[in-house]
């Protein structure tokens, strides 16, 4: 390994010490016999001051450094209130490790907000920006926290197939692939497999996976390739047990993000509130009532809340100190696998989690009775023959169970307060973007 410290590890306390750093030449300022080079690495930046009077040879060499070249510098740390972070490095050696061509595809040294499309076209360069980098450092810490919660609670980490014969959520959103001699599809959701694992006695499972949706969309909250966090648990009483899991794991994740990603939140200028109180659980009917009575808004689709509805509902509850709420009981039988219980005050045991005005997850209690499940499939014209492998699992002892799928990209979008979901994805996919 090249001898180096992260720039953030070089502090004014190191005054007089010799250190080495390596990174990109973020900014170069030339003041006659004095050249300042800001070295940037993933953890931060440090100023290196080349003085002609101190070391002419090194000073000459420094004149050749171009923006975004990678350099390796060794020198003495000096405490100073003239430099960012109250310290600078007085170099004793300099090596240019790699040259950057000019012009750069985009300027990242100033806080110039290039449009998202340019940023995504030049994503490797955009990802060098401290603010962009912070999103992914935060994302990594959030997912570590989320998985930690499930590991602690005894969940089994699973991997389900991404290529299958049919889709769990319906036909229109499937990406076909050629699988040897037959047509197959990219997975929309691990739904069927996580349910089958309940029949297999796994009891509690989670998966950090990928789901593909071939919808035609142009919104700031949809992408074609989604990172999905899926959960399924058995021997539940009802969907409230599932919501408890979603609520507690999200609260823990937000807490850990606030604790472990404070530098990232500062860079992103986000103050993250962790909802300590129980997330309100309101019925779908109540949600429609609030929208109509308080905002005069009536979503067109009788069986759903639209984007505007979710946003207004989010605002309504956020004002009351609840950034996260559950909307429970969606009418209609959009999903054959969801349980509907006669006599319930709600039409089904499906729920959506709305966080900061956007749906983050969707789940509920599943139908575990084979006869009813088959009847629902027939009513919804689902071709049962495509699902025989799934239905088999219900014949030989299936416990009551439920679960949910959480859109990881949407969660990061909301935590980091990003306008567009694509900002939360390293290399996003949408109907118009297949590269980089
Ligand atoms: P659903 O289809 O609602 O449910 O998806 C679950 C969550 O995934 C996210 N999501 C998306 N994010 C970005 N772009 C998209 N195109 C997109 N589609 C979905 C959302 C959504 O809440 N099988 C069920 C889950 C379950 O019941 O276990 C399912 O996939 O945040």
Can you offer a commentary on this structure?
This protein is an alpha+beta fold and 436 residues long. It folds into 2 domains: 7-98, OB fold (Dihydrolipoamide Acetyltransferase, E2P) (Beta Barrel); 125-424, Bira Bifunctional Protein, Domain 2 (BirA Bifunctional Protein, domain 2). 29% of the residues lie in helices and 26% in strands. The strands form 3 sheets. The chain has an 8-stranded mixed β-sheet, sandwiched between helices. The protein has a 5-stranded mixed β-barrel with strand order 1-2-3-5-4. Strands 7-9-8 form a 3-stranded antiparallel β-sheet, with no helix packed on it. α4 crosses α6 (239-260). The model has no long low-confidence stretch (mean pLDDT 93).
Structural class: alpha+beta
Distance between the termini: 29 Å
CATH class designation of the largest domain: Alpha Beta
The bound ligands are:
aspartyl-adenosine-5'-monophosphate
What's the CATH superfamily of the largest domain, by name? Bira Bifunctional Protein, Domain 2
Computed over alpha carbons, the radius of gyration is 27 Å
CATH architecture of the largest domain: 2-Layer Sandwich
Share of helical residues: 25-40%
Nearest-integer average pLDDT = 93
Note the beta-strand portion. 25-35%
Query: How many strands, which pairing sense, and closed or not: the largest β-sheet?
Result: 8 strands, mixed
Total beta strands: 16
Gross morphology: elongated
Q: How many domains?
A: 2
What are the low-pLDDT stretches, counting only 5+ consecutive residues below 50? none
How many helices does DSSP assign?
12
Tell me the series of helices and strands, N- to C-terminal: EEEHEEHHHEEEEHEEHHEHHEEEHHEH
What topology, given as strand order, has the largest sheet? 6-10-11-16-15-14-13-12
CATH topology of the largest domain: BirA Bifunctional Protein, domain 2
């Amino acid at each position: 390994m090249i001898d180096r410290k992260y720039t953030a590890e070089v502090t004014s306390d190191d005054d007089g010490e010799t250190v080495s750093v390596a990174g990109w030449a973020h900014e170069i300022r030339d003041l006659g016999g004095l050249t300042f080079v800001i070295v940037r690495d993933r953890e931060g930046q440090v100023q290196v001051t080349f003085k002609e009077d101190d070391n002419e040879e090194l000073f000459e060499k420094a004149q050749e450094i171009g923006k975004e070249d990678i350099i390796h510098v060794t020198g003495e740390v000096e405490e100073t209130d003239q430099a960012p972070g109250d310290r600078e490095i007085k170099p004793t050696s300099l090596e240019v490790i790699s040259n950057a061509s000019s012009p750069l595809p985009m300027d990242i040294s100033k806080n110039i907000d290039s449009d998202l499309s340019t940023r995504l076209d030049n994503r490797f360069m955009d990802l060098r920006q401290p603010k962009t980098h912070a999103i992914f450092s935060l994302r990594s810490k959030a997912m570590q926290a989320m998985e930690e919660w499930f590991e602690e609670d005894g969940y089994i980490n699973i991997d389900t197939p991404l290529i299958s014969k049919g889709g769990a959520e319906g036909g229109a959103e499937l990406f076909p692939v050629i699988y040897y001699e037959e047509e197959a599809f990219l997975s929309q959701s691990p739904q069927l497999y996580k349910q089958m694992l309940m029949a297999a006695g796994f009891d509690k499972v989670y998966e950090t996976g990928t789901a593909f949706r071939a919808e035609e969309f142009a919104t700031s909250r949809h992408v074609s390739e989604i990172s999905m966090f899926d959960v399924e648990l058995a021997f539940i009483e009802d969907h409230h047990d599932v919501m408890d899991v979603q609520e507690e794991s999200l609260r823990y994740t937000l807490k850990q993000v606030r604790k472990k990603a404070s530098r990232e939140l500062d860079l992103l200028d986000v103050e993250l509130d962790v909802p300590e109180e129980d997330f309100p659980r309101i019925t779908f009917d109540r949600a429609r009532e609030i929208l109509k009575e308080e905002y005069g808004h009536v979503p067109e689709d009788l069986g759903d809340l639209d984007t505007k509805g979710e946003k207004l509902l989010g605002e309504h509850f956020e004002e009351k100190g609840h950034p996260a709420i559950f909307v429970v009981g969606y009418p209609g039988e959009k999903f054959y696998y969801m349980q509907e219980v006669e006599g319930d005050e709600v039409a089904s045991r499906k729920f959506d989690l709305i966080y900061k005005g956007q749906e983050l997850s969707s789940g509920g209690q599943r139908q575990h009775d084979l006869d009813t499940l088959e009847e629902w499939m027939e009513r919804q014209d689902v071709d049962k023959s495509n699902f025989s492998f799934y239905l088999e699992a219900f014949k030989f002892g299936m416990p009551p169970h439920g679960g949910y799928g959480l859109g990881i990209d949407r969660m990061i979008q909301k935590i980091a307060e990003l306008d567009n979901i694509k900002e939360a994805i390293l290399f996003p996919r949408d109907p118009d973007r297949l590269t980089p």
